[in-house]
Structures are given as structure tokens and as C-alpha cells.
Amino acid sequence: MKIFNKGIATIALGLGLSSAVNATTIEVQVSNLFDDGGLAITPVWLGFHDGTFDAFDLNASASPALQNLAENGATGDVEASFASLNSNGVQSVLAAPQGFAPVFEPGETATTGLLEIDAATSGYFSFLSMLIPTNDAFIGNDNPLAYDLFNDQGDFLGLDLIVLGSSVWDAGTELNTGFGAPFLQGAGAQPRQDEGGVVTFSNGLQVLPGGLAIIGGTTATGYTIDQAAADFTASGFEVARITVSQVSEPATLGFFASALGGMVVGFRRRALPYK
């Protein structure tokens, strides 16, 4: 097997696939752990970097990119920021494949395609996603060094992370009135209001006096938000699970086989006119 792998690596280098040979092939799975009647989560931004991408900080103002994600579930600005600051990093946005796609409704799970990371340039993991329906509650890690996927020897460690309700954030950018909250029927009756605050831990689904109640409200897909199912401030409440796993060798070799097969087909097609 070692000889075969070395041969594959040598051929792959000739095809310009050196980064894939030196990298670890992974996939990421995300699950919404809310029970029926709980909250949904927007498509999850996943970033793999060298430890320098700091998405936000506690008690600091949210960046425009984070504000757009925390208020609207939009990942585009975060993606652009990451690309400009981590040109050698790897990122992906994972959406739910079923139901009210791309939103992860309670109980939904999805898995990325194959991603290639390495210890030097993409060994640390960050994530961001909005909880809906809320005004600006989100999940993510404020410490860029929190999740190291490799040990000091460069061996892949993986990650199995349970995101608890106690670590849900409030972006401090929009008043928690319920109005303007995505995924909530009636939320457009009044305009959302800027808060001008800082990132803090969320105090749950409480809304300001005169606001639109989220508990007991109806989502865009027609289910009612239930107190017990949605109260992520309850002790030990589990919001989401994120696993980063190495893909088995046969799947990785299949990737190289496809590339080699494509080269062979290309050679044959180019050779036809000369027969």
C-alpha cells in the first residue's frame, strides 16, 4: 500500500495536484439540535485558517460583515473578508438540503463535500451562523485559536463540537424587538431598529416592550415557536453539533482516480485526429 500511495503521489505531482497530496481531506457535518418547535439556523459559514482570522470579539462592535450575518443570515461579506485576509485559507458555506432549504430547521443535518486543509495554512477552524427567528443572535467562535485541528506533529485531530445555548451571541447591532427578525411571520409590520451596541452573550428570546413575541410566533414554514423547545438559555441546552472528520483513504484515492481518468480521456481525444 505504501508503494501504491507513493506512485499515486508522484503522478499527482505531475498533474499539478501537489496541494491535494500534502493536505488532509476532510468533510464537515452540521446538525441543528433544537427539538420540534425550536429555532432554525441559517447556512453555516465554515472557515479554515492559520489562526489569524478573528471574526469578532466579546464587548467589541461587530464588523459590517458580522452584522450582515447576524441580522440577515447572509455570508457573502464574511466570505469576502476571509478571502482578503486568508488567501491560503479554505472556506465553505453549508446549507440544509431538504425542507425550507437552505435553512436548517430543527433536527436537520447536512454534510459538506470534500475539503482539503493543511496544518500550516488552514489548521484552525472558525464558524458562524444566525439563529432564526431572532434579531441578531448567532453562533460562532470569537477566539481564532479555539479549535486547532492538528497536533504539534501535524497529525490531524478532528473536531466534535456541541454548541451550547450558553455560548449563543448577541451582535448588539439590532434592538431585540422581534420586528425584522427573519423567518417570523408578521416581522415586517414595523421596521427593525439599530442598537449601536457591542457583541455580548445572548439573554435569550426576550423582546422589548411593544415588540413582536417570538415565543408563540409562527415561522415562515408554519410551525409555532415553543417555549421549552426554543429556550436556549436553559442549562445544558444543545443548539448545534459540528464535526470535522478526515475522509477515508479510498475516498481520497477516488478523487485522484477521477483526475487521472480525465487526463487519459483528454489524451485519447487529442490523439484521434492523428490516426
Question: How would you characterize the overall build of this protein?
Answer:
This protein is α+β, with helices and mostly antiparallel strands and 275 residues long. It has one domain (27-247): F-spondin domain (Immunoglobulin-like, Sandwich). It is 25% helix and 22% strand. The protein is built from seven helices and twelve strands. It has helices spanning 2-14, 18-22, 64-72, 76-85, 119-122, 227-230, 249-271; strands at residues 24-32, 40-41, 44-49, 90-94, 109-111, 115-117, 124-132, 137-140, 159-164, 169-170, 200-201, 238-246. Strands 2, 3, 4, 7, 8, 10 and 11 form a seven-stranded antiparallel β-sheet that branches. A hairpin with a 4-residue loop joins strand 7 and strand 8. The radius of gyration is 22 Å and the shape is globular. The protein starts with a helix and ends with a helix.
